[in-house]
């Protein structure tokens, strides 16, 4: 099991594997954990993506187009000089020549990008690599690696669209290209990420000499941009690992498929994702993917790219065995229960996290819950057991404190499901978290009881369970 901490810069939710409690999480040994593990939530991370954080930068969708239509839009420009009826001085002539040249370069570049995108979707490696300058061996090798990785991931939507007018630089042009990608499912809704490119402008066609990767401000680089990956695709998931973890690929896919089968049952408000996308990072990738700088003891994180698309990363050295499926159950639960939510639900932390833990533990006896011991110590220390007083663990909280809070959140949601039935509990979640209805009002409508009565009974159940 795991413990989470939000990365305030990237909006990611980190999943931490602490050592034996108590003590500050950050001071724990990077070795394999021997104590209880605390689960982290997607929670506030989704808000960063939906309300203007870094993930919001990639949410634009206007670039998507069918393959048979060019993405280029040529705007008429008012050219200086005689085109406006004025005198054509040498300065105006130079400006007109520059504008015409830039328009020619923009048109040519977009045609090249369209052809490269089509080549990837049609499986034509030679045509995908063709724009590269023949003298740029490293670039050609990198394009071939990307081609192989993306084809293995069964890329189904791909576009390359100029993000603006190309800028002249020494020896050629610099251009921002918006990459749109999605995998496996026909008609999938791609997400965009901007990358920088550079082109030489000598005699003949423009030649690609640099094809960059996205930066941290755009939640980059994405794993497929910079890493050689081994990929497996299942009915519900796509999983990818660095070469060093190729031996874990089959087990990762099996765990992801099991977790998806559980999480899909809780996609009550919209369809589940066409595929859940999961990456397993090694030590090198852990500090580079998505620009999310995580401590070495963090087990994984879920990153909302848009309100409908979340990518999940697990820390290979830290997450093994049954921890993989358990971590993914929890995170997939966030994906399906929080999809399309566009409001701030941070004040309902206990309910967001409690539901994710409920999904992870559904069908299992309470005796199998790994946080029971730390939750008992939390309660015996006299800390809050009522949901009205239960807040998200502080950034500097100990593993013991965080474990106890997650345990109380889980038991509270489990009691609601046992007392009133799972359907009513989920409707309550919908009203409070997804719609923003005040908990007392939602409780009166769904449970037919006062909020004070419900929270009191709930706290009693928590204390009895942990006594």
Count the domains. 2
CATH class of the largest domain: Mainly Alpha
Largest sheet: 7 strands, mixed
Residue runs with pLDDT of under 50 for 5 or more positions: 1-11, 13-85
Q: For the terminal residues, how far apart are their CA atoms? A: 22 Å
Protein structure class: alpha+beta
Protein name: Peptidase MA-like domain-containing protein
Region (Disordered): 1-31, 78-99
Transmembrane segments: 37-59
Keywords: Membrane, Transmembrane, Transmembrane helix
Summary of the model, kept short:
The protein is an alpha+beta fold and 467 residues long.
Give a verbal description of the structure.
The chain is an alpha+beta fold. The chain folds into 2 domains: 297 residues, Neutral Protease, domain 2 (Orthogonal Bundle); 136 residues, NTF2-like, domain 1 (Nuclear Transport Factor 2, Chain: A, Roll), CATH 3.10.450.100. 39% of the residues lie in helices and 17% in strands. It has 14 helices and 12 strands. The strands form 2 sheets. It has a 7-stranded mixed sheet. Strands 3, 4, 5, 6 and 7 form a 5-stranded antiparallel sheet that branches. Strand 11 and strand 12 form a beta hairpin. Helix 11 crosses helix 14. It is elongated. The protein starts with a strand and ends with a helix. The N terminus is likely disordered.
């Amino acid at each position: 099991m795991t413990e989470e901490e939000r990365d305030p810069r990237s909006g990611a939710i980190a999943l931490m594997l602490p050592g034996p409690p108590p003590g500050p999480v950050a001071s724990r040994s990077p070795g394999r954990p021997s104590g209880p593990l605390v689960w982290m939530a997607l929670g506030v991370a989704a808000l960063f993506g939906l309300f203007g954080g870094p993930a919001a930068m990639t949410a634009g969708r206007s670039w998507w187009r069918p393959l048979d239509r060019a993405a280029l839009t040529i705007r008429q420009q008012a050219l200086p000089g005689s085109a406006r009826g004025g005198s054509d001085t040498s300065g105006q002539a130079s400006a007109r020549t520059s504008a015409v040249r830039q328009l020619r370069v923009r048109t040519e570049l977009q045609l090249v990008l369209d052809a490269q995108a089509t080549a990837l979707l049609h499986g034509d490696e030679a045509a995908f690599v063709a724009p590269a300058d023949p003298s740029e061996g490293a670039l050609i090798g990198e394009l071939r690696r990307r081609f192989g990785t993306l084809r293995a991931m069964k890329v189904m939507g791909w576009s390359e669209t100029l993000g603006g007018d190309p800028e002249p630089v020494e020896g050629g042009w610099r251009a921002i290209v918006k990459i749109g990608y999605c995998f496996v499912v026909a008609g999938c809704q791609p997400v965009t990420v901007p990358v920088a490119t550079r082109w030489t402008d000598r005699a003949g066609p423009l030649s690609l000499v640099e094809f960059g990767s996205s930066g941290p401000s755009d939640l980059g680089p994405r794993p497929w941009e910079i890493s050689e990956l081994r990929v497996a695709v299942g009915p519900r998931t796509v999983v990818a690992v660095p070469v060093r973890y190729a031996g874990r690929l089959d087990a990762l896919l099996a765990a992801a498929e099991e977790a998806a089968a559980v999480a899909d049952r809780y996609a009550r408000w919209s369809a589940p994702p066409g595929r859940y996308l999961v990456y397993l990072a090694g030590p090198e990738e852990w500090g580079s993917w998505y620009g999310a700088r995580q401590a070495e003891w963090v087990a994984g994180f879920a990153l909302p790219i848009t309100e409908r698309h979340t990518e999940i990363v697990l820390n290979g050295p830290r997450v093994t065995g049954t921890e993989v499926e358990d971590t993914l159950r929890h995170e997939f639960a966030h994906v399906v229960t929080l999809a399309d939510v566009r409001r701030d639900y941070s004040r309902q932390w206990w309910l967001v996290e409690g539901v994710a833990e409920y999904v992870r533990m559904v069908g299992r006896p309470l005796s199998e819950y790994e946080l029971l011991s730390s939750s008992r110590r939390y309660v015996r220390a006299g800390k809050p057991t009522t949901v009205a007083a239960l807040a998200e663990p502080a950034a500097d909280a100990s593993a013991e404190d965080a474990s106890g809070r997650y345990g109380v959140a889980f038991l509270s949601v489990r009691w609601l499901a046992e007392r009133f039935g799972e359907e009513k509990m989920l409707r309550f979640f919908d009203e409070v978290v997804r719609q923003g209805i005040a908990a007392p009002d939602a409780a009166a409508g769904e449970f037919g009881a006062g909020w004070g009565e419900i929270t009191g009974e709930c706290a009693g159940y928590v204390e009895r369970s942990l006594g």
